[in-house]
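stage 2 :: seqdesign
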């Protein structure tokens, strides 16, 4: 009897979410994510605490993913894991587990680049949802990365633009921190922005050569603006929070889209996708829809659960790598600074 399906177990542990997913070909059978509440009181992810929490979470999360998928461990054809980039201590936990699992079950081991995973999340089978056609452009925006990726095939991608300093997600998080919002602050900036006037305040918009980005100047501009206004009027940030968030969000989105529009025109590509944690931002999704209508783009937006860090995106990437027999051996190690 011929087995015409492939079952991949995916492991994601690049930052503070421990996730395991089981996919059968390109269909997700389970996608379990355990977050880490421990970081909230520190206003950001503490690497040492993150790796400890991964150690506690990984076995229960994998167990839950296998049970939810309705399979047995012996049904798994290969295990895919995040090699990097990310926090070293966190990556080591996922890498070590995957190596041990592959060794024990005598199955192939597949090392996945976290950023490739974000892009290939678009190829997870979803009812009624179309998938991008090659070539397409993917704007990948997260707390650690901001990139425009030219995607020529499942495993053939090229970064044509990236941030030279901070990521767009950091600009959201820094703004939230300055405004005294709890961690993670990005979604709260989005929430308040919906209630504000986006044209109320102006912030610096650095213009980098080519399709590259810079967000450090914007972050500095926001910080000085808030300090100055707070000195003039105590409580300014509290009373004007909606307009501040709306204006900051508009600035970030303007910076992002001016480059994406240029790349689309230069390369004559109208197939446009977004990916990464910030692609969950409602303002970004709305603006993408508006720009798409003006530029005749076909746009692709991942389901919310596949925007933020998750193992389904690692498993689907593993599935495409499995087809090409791109396996690694037990000498493989995590790489916190893994390049795209």
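stage 2 :: out
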């Amino acid at each position: 009897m011929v087995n015409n399906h492939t079952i991949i177990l995916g492991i994601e542990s690049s930052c503070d979410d421990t996730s395991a997913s089981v996919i059968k070909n390109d269909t997700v059978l389970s996608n379990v994510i355990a977050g880490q509440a421990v970081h909230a009181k520190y206003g950001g992810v503490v690497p040492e605490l993150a790796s400890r929490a991964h150690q506690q979470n990984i076995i229960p999360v994998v167990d839950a993913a296998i049970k939810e998928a309705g399979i047995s461990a012996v049904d798994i054809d290969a295990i895919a894991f995040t090699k990097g980039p990310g926090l070293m201590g966190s990556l080591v936990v996922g890498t070590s587990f995957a190596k041990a699992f592959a060794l024990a079950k005598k199955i192939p081991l597949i090392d996945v680049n976290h950023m490739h995973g974000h892009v290939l999340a678009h190829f997870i089978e979803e009812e009624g949802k179309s998938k991008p056609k090659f070539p397409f452009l993917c704007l990948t925006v997260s707390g650690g990365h901001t990139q425009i990726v030219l995607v020529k095939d499942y495993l053939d991608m090229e970064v044509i633009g990236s941030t030279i300093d901070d990521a767009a997600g950091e600009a959201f998080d820094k703004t939230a921190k300055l405004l005294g919002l709890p961690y993670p602050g990005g979604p709260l900036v989005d929430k308040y922005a919906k209630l504000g006037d986006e044209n109320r305040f102006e912030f610096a918009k650095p213009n980098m050569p080519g399709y590259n980005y810079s967000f450090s100047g914007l972050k500095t501009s926001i910080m000085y603006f808030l300090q100055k206004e707070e000195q003039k009027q105590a409580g300014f940030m509290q009373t004007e929070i909606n307009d501040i968030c709306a204006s900051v969000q508009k600035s970030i989105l303007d910076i992002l889209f001016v480059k994406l529009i240029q790349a689309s025109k230069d390369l004559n590509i109208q197939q446009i996708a977004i990916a990464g944690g910030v692609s969950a931002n409602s303002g970004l999704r709305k603006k993408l829809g508006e720009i798409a209508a003006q530029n005749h783009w076909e746009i692709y937006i991942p389901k919310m659960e596949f925007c933020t860090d998750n193992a389904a995106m690692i498993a689907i990437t593993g599935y495409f790598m499995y087809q090409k027999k791109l396996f690694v051996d037990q000498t493989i190690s995590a790489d916190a600074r893994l390049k795209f």
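stage 3 :: structure notes
- The mean pLDDT is 94.
- The first helix runs from residue 47 to 69.
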